[in-house]
Each structure stands twice: as structure tokens, then as C-alpha cells.
Design a protein that fits this description.
α2 (about 40-60) packs across α3 (about 75-85) and α4 (about 110-120) crosses α5 (about 145-160). The protein is an alpha/beta fold. The relative contact order is 0.15. It has helices spanning about 30-35, 40-60, 75-85, 110-120, 145-160, 175-185, 205-210, 230-240, 265-270, 280-290, 295-310, and strands spanning about 5, 10, 20-25, 65, 90-95, 135, 165-170, 195, 215-220, 250, 255-260. Strands 10-9-8-7-6-5-4-3-11 form a nine-stranded parallel sheet. Strands 1-2 form a two-stranded antiparallel ribbon. α6 links the parallel β7 and β8. Bound molecules: zinc ion. The site of zinc ion has 5 residues, from β3.
């Protein structure tokens, strides 16, 4: 039996079930939240998140991976409260988003690792809730010097703990491949990495280049039609299944029950189906219509997430 850290305790990987591999209970700027009491209505957010998570549960979702890193406002108390009230298995992350934080400049990587590793070995924010996955991110500036450091830190955290890495990328400059390069230089087994946001791309050559190196890829932004519409995302997955890559694909929305990057009404206007229900309600039926079999759907929603978490052990 293999177990992993969930926010409410250990989870048997056999019990993960239908897993959304990249979501967020909330993305809220810590500095704004600490400075202005009205920036976040915490109780309203928790109520809304509990309702959303319960709705996913009613549709068969058994586990949610919350990939909110430290510098996007990860608050373990909120995540735990939602997990408890909605009775959902939630896995929390440690690691960093892609912004070139000024304090990343001078600190040695291994001294930073000493901080982040405690999230995995001891618990987050003074609780017993341990991180079960490592987030790393690269965006439009690509792998800058500071970003390289951030990726190296994730790689070393992974090798020290055996916890998998899951990333944010920008498909426009093919950063998934650049991330794999840095991880490989650090001795990471690329089969233990999920290269995220690959679902934003319909460039099959790019996706196959990542897949050829053994990583999982996240088809993980369903509902963000402004980046790539659902029907295109679906046809890319169907084609990759036809080409034999089913065992390397995982699904999700990258949805947030609350995100402070935009006023709420703007998010709803921009992406009305960007929630935890879109995959069970719309995407799975669309994949069936595109010729994806029940076994393939099960692989992408249940078996592959389990395999991501069952590759364990420091090395
Ligand atoms: Zn995300």
C-alpha cells in the first residue's frame, strides 16, 4: 500500500479515485490580504468553495490537487476547512510561482530548500498538514536566471523527498521543454514530473516532444476557452490517445473558487464554465463523442493520477 500526504492526513493511493490534478481553492495576494481586511471575505469564500467542492463530489470527483504555491496566497487553514466541510480528499502543494521574486536573487538554492522541505516533512504553517506535491512555474519570460534557480530548487526538493513535481508553463514559448532540460540537469527522473498547462496547446509536435521524454502532461485548463476552446482541447486529447499516449495524460481545470486577479464578475464573464464541474459535466461526454474509450477516460482521471503519486522515494 502506498500513501501520500493529504491536508487532513494520509491518503491511500488506491483511494484517490477520480482526481482533478491542478485546481485552486483560492489564489489571493498575501500582502493585499494582510494589509486590507476587506480584500478577502474569508467566510464567503469558504462557503462558496465548500459548495463548489461538494458539487464536484456529487459528480464523482474523489480527490483534488490544490496546486497553489506559497507566493500565490496558499493558506492551509482555508484549504483544510474546505476539505473537512466538503469531505473531499485534497492534496496541497509547496513551491513557487514564476515571478522573479527579489529575495530569490541572492539566496543559495540549498538554503531555500531547507525552508520548503519542512512543508513536506513537518507540515504547512504550523499545522500537521503536509504538502503532497511540488509546484514549479515558468511563464512568458522563459527560464531566466532566477527562474532556473526556482526550477532547480523544485528539483532538489523532489529528489530529497520523492514527492512529485507539477508545473505551470507558457505553451507559446514551449517552456515545458526548457523545464524538462533543467530538471534533467538536476538528475530528476522526468517520469515523476507533470508538465502542466499543455492543454493550452494544439501543437502536437511540441506535446509529443515532451511526452517522448517520459513526463506526464497536464490537460488542465478546461474552461479557459479564451486560451484554447474546449472542442480543440478535446480533439488534441483524442488524437494523443489515438497515438498511444493515454497513460501520460491527466485532466483538470486550473479553476479557482476565488481569484483576486480580476473582479469576480469579470471572471464569470470571461470564463463561465471555469469551475470544478466542467470536466464531469461537459468534457468527459465530449471525449466519448470524440472516440475516447471508457478505459482511456479511467486512465486519465483515476489511474494516471494514482501513478503520479505512487512513484515514490528520495533519490
Ligand atoms: Zn494553477
Amino acid at each position: 500500500m502506498a500513501t501520500i500526504s493529504g491536508v487532513l492526513g494520509e491518503i491511500d493511493t488506491a483511494e484517490l479515485g477520480f482526481t482533478l490534478m491542478h485546481e485552486h481553492i483560492m489564489v489571493v495576494n498575501w500582502a493585499m490580504r494582510m494589509s486590507f481586511a476587506s480584500w478577502l471575505d474569508r467566510d464567503a469564500l469558504v462557503d462558496r468553495a465548500v459548495a463548489e467542492v461538494r458539487a464536484a463530489k456529487a459528480r464523482g470527483v474523489r480527490s483534488i490537487v490544490d496546486l497553489t504555491p506559497v507566493n500565490l496566497g496558499r493558506d492551509i487553514h482555508v484549504i483544510r476547512e474546505v476539505a473537512e466541510r466538503a469531505e473531499m480528499q485534497i492534496v496541497a502543494a509547496t513551491g513557487l510561482y514564476w515571478m522573479d521574486e527579489p529575495w530569490l536573487q541572492a539566496w543559495e538554492i540549498d538554503r531555500l530548500v531547507e525552508y520548503f522541505v519542512r512543508d513536506i516533512t513537518h507540515g504547512i504553517q504550523g499545522t500537521s498538514a503536509k504538502a503532497g506535491i511540488i509546484k514549479a512555474a515558468t511563464d512568458h519570460p522563459g527560464v531566466t536566471d532566477i527562474n532556473r534557480k526556482l526550477l532547480q530548487m523544485a528539483a532538489r526538493l523532489h529528489r530529497a523527498t520523492g514527492v512529485p513535481i507539477s508545473t505551470h508553463t507558457d505553451v507559446h514559448n514551449r517552456t515545458g521543454l526548457a523545464q524538462q532540460d533543467v530538471f534533467a540537469e538536476e538528475g530528476v527522473d522526468l517520469a515523476r514530473v507533470v508538465i502542466g498547462h499543455c492543454g493550452d496547446s494544439d501543437d502536437l509536435a511540441y506535446l509529443e516532444a515532451i511526452l517522448a521524454r517520459g513526463s506526464f502532461i497536464g490537460m488542465d485548463r478546461f474552461g479557459l476557452d479564451i486560451l484554447l476552446p474546449t472542442d480543440k482541447r478535446v480533439s488534441v486529447i483524442a488524437e494523443l490517445c489515438r497515438r498511444g499516449y493515454t497513460s501520460q495524460l491527466v485532466l483538470s481545470h486550473d479553476a479557482c473558487c476565488h481569484i483576486d486577479w480580476f473582479p469576480r464578475e469579470q471572471v464569470e464573464m470571461m470564463a463561465p464554465r471555469w469551475n470544478f464541474r466542467h470536466i464531469p459535466d461537459d468534457v468527459l461526454p465530449a471525449l466519448r463523442r470524440a472516440g475516447v474509450s471508457e478505459d482511456q477516460l479511467r486512465a486519465m482521471t483515476v489511474d494516471n493520477p494514482r501513478r503520479v503519486f505512487e512513484r515514490q522515494g528520495a533519490y
